[in-house]
Predict the 3D structure of the following.
Amino acid sequence: MYLLKYISKRLALMLVTFFIIVMGCFVLVKLLPNIPAEQFGKDMEVILARREKLGYNLPIIQQFWRFLKYAFQGDFGVSEQLYIGSEVWQIFVDKLPYTVAVNVYSIFLSIPLGLGLGIIAAIRKNKWQDHLISTGVMIFVSIPSFIYGFIVKYLLCYKLKWFEPLMDASQGPWSFRAFETMIPAILCLSFSSIAGFARYTRAELSEVLTSDYLLLARTKGLSRQQATIRHALRNSMVPIFPMILGEFISIMGGSLIIEQMFTIPGVGKLYINSVQATPPDYNFFMLDTVFYTFIGLFAGIIVDISYGIIDPRIRMGAR
């Protein structure tokens, strides 16, 4: 009962937040000038018809309600800059698998390495292994992903020539060729995630290893390894697993800069291009804004709810 009430409250707050963000972005982007219809040439009639449907000649607030009406039907209009006359929803769907692919690969690399390094650092606390891992974690957490992009491109692609600097998307997002040319981008996305998982795992496991119930388990005859595997790891995963779950939910969020740097034709690159266009491609911008906003808010809710599912002692919404 408490959990259901908590979920309902969080969903209501999410919808309100989502509505405010989308409305603010819509109003701000609509204050920019539209492209004169004459510049579209042979596509002029298509563009004008869709503008009429979406109410471009109406006041902004009426345009927003009309935008919501058609957005719920999957109609976000047509591109007026990047892919003139094409349905933005169809272009978005075609590019989404590339974003999902590069982020799925990076997560599957990050989770075992991050957890493994965190476990080693916690077990070898205050030893040289712990100091080495902790120093590396602080460095990798502090550096933005696009800096990794420059380093990886220079060292691995140009100097050592281990990988190609740009992705080859000719065979689809899930082909081996795509994976092979995605490796530099996957590494760039993985570094900060590995450091984050290692930091949280070390902190939680170090605290559990010094708890009273673990000392009691040792006095009852369990070896250090048995006590760590049976009790310490199990309890330390309670706050860490929701973090992993949140990463999986957020995989479609993509990486705006990394996709641009390695020419991955995903929704992140599409978002950047829609903003960089002069004037911006309004319909692509709004579709990407709706998508990223929803993914971010929804991931937060799932992470919070998962605490109560993983550990029944945590009663979300209870007083």
